[in-house]
Each structure stands twice: as structure tokens, then as C-alpha cells.
Specification:
This protein is about 65% helix and about 0% strand. It is an all-alpha fold and about 425 residues long. The protein starts with a helix and ends with a helix.
Length: about 425
């Protein structure tokens, strides 16, 4: 994948006249503004959506089964942390390369928007169009580059299907049917993986239909925010607040999923109705063949340059709900995370008051050490003792802990065996 991205950039930079021309074309149309400090949540891309929204967009991905099974695949906790570090560096590199390709494509088609000129039907087709125009004279090469780009998603999809199968088989099938043999469980897991793969493939057509709407929140981000955002909030509750409980967290998750779905689905349907603000930057078809000429004789509409006005003035009188539905898609995961976090604290507190007891204590090692010290200062050790278990052995997330524990037990058994042999010899 990285080779494909690098090859496209190397060829593309020469095709569009160099790095300076790419940057100049982007700067002229306000596509290089990094510090847009607008605090309006409806503004699609700002400094705040890229930092706060971006962090809460990516963090939930690292609390899923697909990632956790990767952490557990290495022998030590240190190596798990190193894999995360390498993953972060790789992701940053890929994002930078993809962003540069986006600027490069704009420079190439800055005077002839392929979508506006009806050359292609979707912005997703711009990169294949560019590859075919630039490298089409080399048989087989465009296919190899496109295959290299799409191959990166295959490993992600395979691990996601594998983790989904593991969760359903381990947490549900084994739980309710503990008498099933390993052979039967293997057949069930393969069936679950097959059905999940077919379902995921079918969703491609759903997303393609949904994304036809202007300025629509990506359907994948809707699912991301509605499901993974609340899961991150639940993780945060467990790490930072020892007085939260299971029922309070489940209630918070339920409400947060419904709230996120309300905002996301409202965005989709409002976009379909043409009610959302159009924040697209200026695009032009002036450089296209027959640009700005009516060619109705050929059964097509006029190809005209497009420009965007001040969308805030046009939507100043929008209703309250329409403003909520117009929130940038990058805030979608944040809505799920923050609402779960806050509602979990409130619901857990209400449940503790109703039950009049603190419930089971939380192992000290499962809590964030800085927050544990904070609660000790704020609440006092005496009150904290009601919630935190300081006596149980520490729980470790080190994947090698079980192996070390087994090795220690084996060493103890060997030691006892030798002592017994020595005692028998002496006797």
C-alpha cells in the first residue's frame, strides 16, 4: 500500500508541475488553512474538529476486540506498547500521504472538476481516473497500483471479521451452549464469519446509496460514533471512576447509542432533503471541454462553475433540531463518548443512592493511578476504601502474565518434588 501511494505521488508531482504548483493551487482556494478556530460545531473542518474530534474519532478504534487481540498476540506488555507506537507512526505517514494526494488531485483538476463535468459520478472515482489518465499507457500498472491501495483494507476487514467471530463464539455460543464440542464450535465460527462477510459486503451498496447526499455525514462515521464512541466512554468510566457500576454504565450506553443515532440519522435525512449547509469550497469546470456551454442537444445539462457563499448567513434561521443535525460528522464519536461518560456518572450515582450500598469493590490495578491519587485527595482514603479493593492480587493486562504464573507454579512443583526426593533419601 505504501509503495502504491509513493508511486502515485512520484508520478503525480511531475504531472501537475511540481510541489510548488500543488501548494499554490491549494492555497489560492483556501485549502491550506490549518488554524480555523471557528467554535461552531456545524463547521465541517476546523482546528477543533481535527484535534479534539480527531482524537475521539481514533481512540475508540483501539478499544475494540480487533485491536485487543493484537495486543494479546505479543508476549509482553512492553511489546504491546511498542506495537501501538509503530501503529501510530504508520497511521500518521499514511494520513500525510493521502492528504498530499488529495492536494495533488485538486491541482490536476482545479480547472475541470470531473464530478461537475459529469466525467465521473462520484468523488471516490477521482483517484482511479487520475491513475488511468497518467499511467493508462502502461498495461497492467494501473491495476497493480489500485490493487496495492485496496489491499490495505483487506487485512483490516479480515481482522474485524475474525474478532467479531471470536466475540460471538466465545461470549455467546460458549456461554449458552457450554456442552458444544470444539468441532461443532469450529463449524459455527466459520458460519458466523461467512455471514458477517456477506453482510459487510452488502453494506457497501447501502453506504454508496447514502453517500449520494450532499454534505452528508459518512455512514461509516455514523456507525463509528453510535457504537464505538459509547464503548470508549464505558472504558473511561471503568478506568477513572471507581464508584461507577454495571447497571449505570449499561443505561448510559443505551441512551448514548440512541442519542448518537438520532444525530446521525437526522443528518442523513436532512441531507437528503437538501436542508444541510453546503460548505464545499469553490470548484470549477472552466477548463473542461465545452465548459460553460449548454449541450442540451446531447441530452445533458449545462456545465457551469460552482461557487459557495456564506453558509452561516443562509442557515441563520434554521430550527434547533436542524442545527443539531448539521453538526460536523467529526463530532459524532465525541457525542457518544462524552454522553456515555457523563450519563454513566449520573446513573451510577442514582443507583448507589437507591441501593444504599457501594456494590463490589474495584481492583486497584484496574484504575488509572493519577485519578486514584486525585480521588484520594478529593474524597479521602476512608471514603475511597468503600470503592477500591487494595487487598486482592493486582490484575495485569500483560499477555505473558499467565505464562509466567504457570512457569512459577511449575518451578514450585519441581522444587517441592526435589525436596520430597531429598527427604525420602535422608529417611
Amino acid at each position: 500500500m505504501l509503495i502504491s501511494l509513493g508511486a502515485i505521488i512520484a508520478v503525480g508531482v511531475q504531472e501537475v508541475g511540481g510541489v510548488s504548483n500543488i501548494w499554490e493551487q491549494a492555497a489560492k482556494t483556501q485549502r491550506t488553512e490549518f488554524f480555523i478556530m471557528d467554535v461552531d460545531l456545524r463547521t465541517r473542518h476546523t482546528f477543533w474538529t481535527a484535534t479534539i474530534g480527531g482524537i475521539l474519532l481514533w481512540l475508540p478504534l483501539f478499544t475494540t476486540q480487533a485491536q485487543i487481540q493484537r495486543y494479546n498476540s505479543v508476549p509482553t506488555l512492553r511489546q504491546s506498547r511498542l506495537t501501538l507506537l509503530f501503529n501510530m507512526c504508520g497511521l500518521m505517514l499514511i494520513i500525510v500521504l493521502c492528504s498530499w494526494i488529495g492536494l495533488m488531485l485538486f491541482a490536476k483538476y482545479s480547472t475541470c472538476d470531473p464530478v461537475g463535468a459529469d466525467i465521473i459520478k462520484s468523488p471516490d472515482q477521482i483517484l482511479p481516473l487520475f491513475v488511468m489518465e497518467v499511467l493508462g499507457k502502461y498495461p497492467g500498472l494501473p491495476g497493480l497500483l489500485i490493487a496495492g491501495l485496496t489491499s490495505g483494507s483487506l487485512s483490516t476487514i479480515s481482522s474485524a471479521l475474525n474478532s467479531l467471530t471470536a466475540i460471538i463464539t466465545g461470549d455467546f455460543v460458549k456461554h449458552y451452549r457450554p456442552d458444544y464440542s470444539e468441532e461443532k464450535l469450529a463449524v459455527i465460527s466459520k458460519s458466523i464469519s461467512t455471514v458477517s462477510g456477506i453482510t459487510a459486503f452488502a453494506l457497501v451498496f447501502v453506504i454508496a446509496e447514502v453517500n449520494k447526499t450532499i454534505q452528508i455525514s459518512p455512514f461509516s462515521t455514523l456507525l463509528h460514533g453510535s457504537l464505538l464512541g459509547p464503548i470508549l466512554g464505558a472504558y473511561a468510566l471503568g478506568m477513572f471512576f471507581p464508584f461507577t457500576n454495571e447497571l449505570g454504565t449499561i443505561l448510559a450506553l443505551t441512551v448514548s447509542v440512541l442519542l448518537s443515532a438520532f444525530v446521525g440519522l437526522g443528518n442523513i435525512f436532512s441531507g437528503r432533503a437538501g436542508l444541510l449547509p453546503d460548505q464545499k469550497l469553490t470548484l470549477s469546470t472552466d477548463g473542461c471541454l465545452l465548459a460553460n456551454y449548454t449541450i442540451d442537444d446531447f441530452g445533458k445539462n449545462s456545465i457551469m462553475s460552482r461557487c459557495v457563499g456564506d453558509w452561516k448567513e443562509d442557515h441563520a434561521n434554521d430550527s434547533f433540531f436542524l442545527k443539531i443535525w448539521s453538526i460536523s460528522y467529526l463530532w459524532q464519536p465525541a457525542i457518544g463518548t462524552i454522553s456515555t461518560f457523563l450519563l454513566g456518572i449520573i446513573f451510577s450515582g442514582i443507583i448507589v443512592i437507591i441501593r444504599k450500598n457501594s456494590g463490589p469493590k474495584v481492583n486497584e490495578s484496574l484504575l488509572s493511578t493519577p485519578f486514584l491519587k486525585l480521588w484520594k485527595v478529593v474524597l479521602g482514603q476512608k471514603y475511597l476504601d468503600k470503592w477500591v479493593d487494595y487487598d486482592s492480587p493486582p490484575f495485569t493486562g500483560d499477555p505473558s502474565a499467565k505464562l509466567r504464573r504457570n512457569n512459577n507454579e511449575l518451578a514450585n512443583l519441581n522444587s517441592n518434588h526435589k525436596e520430597n526426593q531429598f527427604s525420602v533419601t535422608v529417611l
